[in-house]
Write a structure and sequence with these properties.
Low-confidence stretches: none
Number of helices: 0
CATH superfamily: Galactose-binding domain-like
Helix content: under 10%
Strand content: over 45%
Order of helices and strands: EEEEEEEE
Mean pLDDT: 93
Number of strands: 8
Radius of gyration: 15 Å
Length: about 120
């Protein structure tokens, strides 16, 4: 419900994934990742923030989803960063997968505060 230090979905290590089922099928247009800013971090750094990540969609009939883009969350950027779909898609989807490929250096865990999916209704 909020974006305070520690109120995140944390997973062990620097790689992980999250699958979301949307309430309805959409044509995805963009994705937003949110993390706390450096100024709110007790250590003054956000090494637990996702760094490289990719986003896939799936219609449950595929073994592997369709890649919509690979992105980098800027550690020194705004806490809320929006990324456009890089691979155009003509099909509506309800399942979205966020794959975190690396973080900004935290060895023990990665924190994801918010992940949003933007799109047009099917």
């Amino acid at each position: 419900p909020d974006v305070y230090p520690g109120n995140c979905w944390a997973f062990r290590g620097s790689q992980g994934y999250l699958v979301i089922r949307l309430s309805a099928k959409i044509y995805p247009t963009a994705f937003t990742v949110e993390h706390i800013p450096n100024t709110l971090s007790p250590t003054g750094t956000i090494t637990s923030a996702p760094r490289e990540f990719s986003v896939y969609v799936n219609d449950e009939s595929q073994a592997e989803g369709k890649l919509l883009g690979r992105y980098v969350y800027a550690q020194e950027g705004e806490p809320l960063q929006t990324f456009p779909v890089m691979e155009k898609n003509e099909k509506a989807f309800q399942l979205v997968e966020l794959r975190t490929l690396s973080n900004w250096g935290h060895a023990a865990y990665t924190c994801l505060y918010r992940f949003r999916v933007h799109g047009k209704p099917a």
